[in-house]
Every structure is written in structure tokens, then in C-alpha cells.
Write a structure and sequence with these properties.
about 150 residues; mainly alpha; two-stranded parallel ribbon; globular; binds 4-nitrophenyl phosphate
């Protein structure tokens, strides 16, 4: 699960995805394209909206997406078109390129939707991001486990 800072959107996506998959069979992680918040806990508004849904993401720490991630993980879900561009630029071959998808393409195929960056907005933005990611991760979890 990849966003820009790895403190708002992708930590929620990671927490949601992990809560829906069998932990013995899947490794779920998140990272940011920028590395600008490296080592930091998630934004308190993300932690709060997750807590309101009984999801604890408070132990996550921001890290920067690496070249190795593109090799190691089978699926790379990005939050928006800018993330897509940035991560595609890191890919070294078609196998890596084919792993990278916008997360809302799973829930709303053909609509090319972004999970909007909630960082500079208010709490409502985080609630709306949570809802979108809850829907998308439901669909992804069902696909991966079917
Ligand atoms: P995220 O949100 O990419 O969902 O983690 C952001 C976090 C920080 C910044 C931008 C977006 N920032 O500009 O510092």
C-alpha cells in the first residue's frame, strides 16, 4: 500500500487490508514515495478514524518505498495518479510494472479514481478516505482469498 508520505492514506490501507486477510498466508505492508516522514507514526487523524472502527494502526512507522519492495511484493496498490507515476518510474521491467495498480480501480473499475490526499484538510477527509479504503480492501481481500 503506497501513498506519498506513508502517514495518512497507506497506513489505513495497510491496517484495513491486514485485518481482512489470513496473516499466515499474506504479508501486508505500506510505504511512501517521498520518505519525508520517515520513522514517524501515522497522522493522529488516521489513527483516530481507525480507532473509531476498532482498528489499531498506532504501531506503524513511515518508511520510504524501495526498489526491493517492487521485487518482493506481488501486488503494489497506490492511492493516486501521482503515486502511480512515481512508482512506475521505479519499476525496472514489465513484471514489476504489472504489479502496480491504483487501489480504487478494484472497487470502481474504469473510473480512474484517486484516494484524495487528506493531509491539509479536516477530519471529514479522513473519514471519507477510510470509507473508500474499506470498500476497496473488501474487494481485494475477497479476490486474493478466492
Ligand atoms: P499521505 O499524506 O501521502 O496520505 O501520507 C500526506 C502526508 C504528508 C504530506 C502530504 C501528504 N506532506 O506534504 O507532508
Amino acid at each position: 500500500m503506497v501513498c506519498l508520505g506513508n502517514i495518512c492514506r497507506s497506513p489505513l490501507a495497510e491496517g484495513l487490508m491486514r485485518s481482512k486477510l489470513n496473516f499466515t498466508k499474506f504479508t501486508v505492508d505500506s510505504a511512501g514515495t517521498s520518505g519525508g516522514h520517515k520513522g514517524e507514526a501515522s497522522d493522529k487523524r488516521s489513527i483516530e478514524i481507525a480507532m473509531q472502527h476498532d482498528l489499531d494502526i498506532s504501531d506503524q512507522r513511515s518508511r520510504k518505498l524501495t526498489q526491493e519492495d517492487l521485487e518482493e511484493f506481488d501486488y503494489i496498490y497506490v492511492m493516486d495518479s501521482k503515486n502511480l507515476e512515481d512508482v512506475q518510474r521505479m519499476a525496472v521491467d514489465d513484471t514489476q510494472r504489472s504489479k502496480i495498480k491504483k487501489i480504487l480501480d478494484e472497487a470502481f473499475p474504469g473510473e480512474n479514481l484517486d484516494v484524495p490526499d487528506p493531509y491539509y484538510g479536516g477530519k471529514q477527509g479522513f473519514a471519507s478516505v477510510y470509507k473508500m479504503l474499506d470498500q476497496a480492501t473488501d474487494i481485494i481481500a475477497k479476490k486474493l482469498q478466492s
